[in-house]
Amino acid sequence: MTETAVVEVPTYGHYIGGEWREARGGDTFETLNPARRDEVLARVARGNEVDVQDAVTAARAAFPGWSRTPMPVRGDVIGRAARLLEERKEELARLMTQEMGKVLTEARGDVQEGIDMAKYMAGRSRGAVGETVPSELRQKRCFTERVPLGVVGCITPWNFPMAIPTWKLMPALLAGNAVVFKPAEDTPLVAIRLVEILIEAGLPAGVLNLVTGTGEEAGHALVQHPEVTAISFTGSVEVGRQVAVACAGAGKRVGLELGGKNAMVVLADGDIELAVDGALWGAFGTSGQRCTATSRMVVERAAVGPFTEALLARVRQLRLGDGLDPATDVGPVINERQLHRIHRYSEIGKEESARLLHGGAIATAGALERGFFYTPTLFGEVAPGMRIAQEEIFGPTAAIIPADDFDAALAIANGTRYGLSLAVYTRDLRRAMEAVDRLEAGIVYVNAPTIGAEIQLPFGGTKATGNGHREAGATAFDEFSEWKTVYIDYSGRLQRAQIDTAGPA
Ligand code: NAD
Questions:
Q1: Annotated catalytic residue 257
Q2: How confident is the model over 41-63, as pLDDT tens digits?
Q3: Are both 11-258+466-484 and 262-446 of the same fold?
Q4: Using CA atoms in the order 488, 491, 492, 494, what is the torsion angle rounded to 10 degrees?
Q5: What average pLDDT does the chain have?
Q6: Over the stretch 247-282, which tens digit does the pLDDT of each residue have?
Q7: Of residues 291, 392, 471, 479, which has the active-site annotation?
Q8: Potential cystine with 13: which of 20, 204, 284, 436 (Cβ 3.0-4.6 Å)?
Q9: What is the β-pairing status of strands 14-16 and 481-489?
């Protein structure tokens, strides 16, 4: 982290065992405003393995009490957190824009996703958690229930600083686990506010512990800790794979939500204007820093001309700036490293002979020079195998890939290592349904961009994007609990399954 001039900034500690405390080593790091890199928002504890050890010890101690608390009572705490999130939505959204950069309307949406998830989980606390199944024997009852795992480590990225943590914390806590939460080093402040809200909502000491710091130190220590039963990880494929290997070695359960290289297929019979609206929002919303960003537009050749022309006209109008300014369409990217990484991909695209239609440069005009701004970038005539069509850029860069026909378009859309979100634009119901059948992704949209998940449905990807888990929706609970099967025999005699089968009375 960069050292900047002496400015009075607040300092925050870890939250461990019901109290805020400094890092054991006394180290801190800074969290910055990406729209004005010289604006330090806070100094935050930089955790290491000793802090993680403290947090896991506290979580272990709190687990028995919390896991035996009735689920509706756990749900009440989450319900109160939902109300507090709702009351503070505007304040949280502003903080998020300052810390992460996304424009205020999107930051409000990010907080709303957290509110929705908390409400949904609070509601589920009074719902069924298993099923009653008939026994083959008389005077015997069989049922299943979900039981918590123990101490769960939640590791999150910076691009949805409220939504992603709530997707993990709310179901993990509702299921009765104790949690150690390690948020991304670029967005610790939003995480601290979320933890404060859960404490205020009545979470007992030790049930939720926050350790801020880097992935290499705090994150790594959490993954390695033998008393952490499960890890829920959202981030890049590269780190996710390392986490999975470490967890496999330790016999730990791991849920992975990783990267994407999402595509919208635009067929010639589709509503081109609608597709352009979707492409603009899908590719350049959140400055393209979404795992579901529409980074590829696979367009049937007959529609390439009109689609490109219309999209280019809209991209040219996008205004870069501070996300708190209502005139801004596209905010900064998260940090200097990402800014240069995104720019490197523009260079690669040109080297690969893709046609740069717009952007391709770090934006430095006027006040933009103070932040990490990248001009919205559009490439045309991109071939499906090019690196800019295969690798996740995680910035405001999109590629138009011409396809000869419907079958070719689907093959191109499916032709990456990722499988998160794919979309099709067509007016032909038969082709829409055929695409739903054949697109290889965890999420498929028809006549909408690759963005727009709702919390009451499962979220996650196939292929390199994940490892089979789904967050949110009815499946959210699966990641954070396991089945217990219960047989109750009240016959008063030994009844042997498969042997003493009961005949008709
Ligand atoms: P990242 O992998 O660099 O970091 C994610 C988290 O892991 C951070 O908290 C980081 O500190 C931690 N971490 C880093 N190294 C670690 C290690 N060795 N051990 C343990 N933890 C470690 O990702 P990022 O740059 O923060 O986020 C961007 C990535 O996240 C993109 O690839 C994006 O597609 C992905 N993402 C996926 C989803 C999804 O649901 N599929 C959602 C959002 C973001």
A1: yes
A2: 999 999 999 999 999 999 999 99
A3: no
A4: -80
A5: 97
A6: 999 999 999 999 999 999 999 999 999 999 999 999
A7: 291
A8: 20
A9: unpaired
Residue 212 Cα, ligand 1 centroid: separation in angstroms?
Answer: 14
Percent of the chain clearing pLDDT 90 (strictly above): 97
Instruction: Give per-residue burial for 438-448: e unless 16+ CB within 10 Å, then b.
Output: bbbbbbbbebb
% of the chain at pLDDT higher than 70: 99
Q: Single out the catalytic residue among 99, 217, 257, 471.
A: 257
79 to each of 23, 116, 147, 174, how far by Cα in Å?
Answer: 31, 10, 21, 10
CATH topology for 262-446 is Aldehyde Dehydrogenase; Chain A, domain 2 (3.40.309)
pLDDT classification of 1: cutoffs 50, 70, 90: very low
Q: What is the pLDDT averaged over residues 378-392?
A: 98
DSSP secondary structure, 91-102, as one string: HHHHHHHHHH--
Assign domain 11-258+466-484 to its CATH architecture: 3-Layer(aba) Sandwich (3.40)
- Ligand 1 proximity of 52 Cβ (cutoff 6 Å): no
Mean pLDDT of 64-68: 98
What is the mean pLDDT of the segment spanning 430-450?
98
| 3-state secondary structure at position 240 | helix
Centroid of ligand 1 to alpha carbon of 257 (angstroms): 9
CA 334 distance to own-chain centroid: 15
- Ligand 1 atom at minimum distance from 182 CA: 9
Domain boundaries along the sequence of the chain: 11-258+466-484, 262-446
Q: Packing angle between helix 104-124 and helix 71-87, nearest 10 degrees?
A: 160
Atom of ligand 1 nearest to the CA of 291: 34
Ligand 1 touching residue 29 (CB < 6 A): no
247 is catalytic: no
Query: Going by CA atoms, what residue is nearest to atom 43 of ligand 1?
Result: 291
3-class secondary structure, 20: strand
